[in-house]
Automatic annotation (TrEMBL):
Tagged with keyword Transmembrane: yes
GO CC annotation: plasma membrane
Pfam families tied to this protein: BenE
InterPro entries found in the cross-reference section: Benzoate_Transporter (IPR004711)
Keywords of the record: Membrane, Transmembrane, Transmembrane helix
Protein name as annotated: Benzoate transporter
Domain of life: Bacteria
Amino acid sequence: MTLSPWRDLSPSAVLAAVLALLVGYSGPFLIIVHAAQSAGLSAAQLGSWVWAVSIGSGVAGLWLSLRWKAPVITAWSTPGAALLLVALPGVPYPEAVGAFLAAAVIVTAIGVSGVFDRIMKVFPPALAAALLGGILFRFVAELAGAASHDAALVLPMAAAFFLGRRLFPRYALPLALALGFVIAGVQGLFGALPAWQGGAGPQFTLPAWSWTAFVNLAIPLALVALTGQFLPGMAVLASSGYRIPARSPVTTLGLMSIVTAPLGGHGVVLAAITAAICTGPEAHPDPARRYMAGVVCGVLYILLGLAGGALAALILTLPKALVAAAAGLALFGTLASSLATALGDERQREAALLTFVVAASGVTIAGLGAPLWALLAGGAVSGLLRWRWRLAPA
């Protein structure tokens, strides 16, 4: 099918991309800033870090979305950034950059090997939907928490959204978001514009090798990227009907991470939560036209990166309740369809429910996140149930 980006571009796809960027930069962006400050990085090094992960995410996401005509949303590794909060202060910066490079090489090698493709092929669709549902649950549930703290803002947004779903489904989310901006403006909820202390462009750092950094940084970074980002990211795409070989995004993003590592980038990966905003019906009723959300998201990443993070600072002025409510409402339909798919197959229902519960728990064991443990727990029960069904009399 011939690509027609201008024909396929729609306001709903643009809104989904903008909302995905708002969610990404309103929370995970702060983790990067905090990690850089904790490690004593200079303003130029912080600016280069933001430049690297933003440009890397934008270029890779833009290419993958056009290549597969699917909304392939990329981002920096959020669990990786959280890991650096603890590990980065004790590692010389050149050695940390060397660890970033080593982690990227590990991810690329796994992508080229096709291991991820084999995992996704044997993973039952019901469990993939349950995994996605468990990941999204906490973000949708934040609607209740946001409403309890900012009822005057969140409740009207929710009412407008659900009323819109009844009367004009395509415009329900834009209406809720516009109303939220108006109410936040009237109530004076927007924060003061923070001063951006980062540099304006990339700064090359020669990577240095260290076994300590390799063990304490490179291996954990690769593991959390694969289990905490690529696994749920592929599940998001699969649950929305986009059958993309895992080798392509894993290898592409691994190579992009290799390129951006000497500039301070700690890893470019598949997004999960923000991807769900762009892969569902809120982005466009026609799944074949949702890829434009990925294209727009890629372009916006590049623009933010070229701005050296100054535009990202604007996002930090938004009320947290507004961002949380908008994200929860945008993910509401995707969560509902994921649960319907997960529990629709009677033979996989118990395994899917266990997968959902473990993924929603957010548990971390031995440094590995909930998505991996949900996959292992659900897969084990699924195998056990299939064995039981084979033994059952006809």
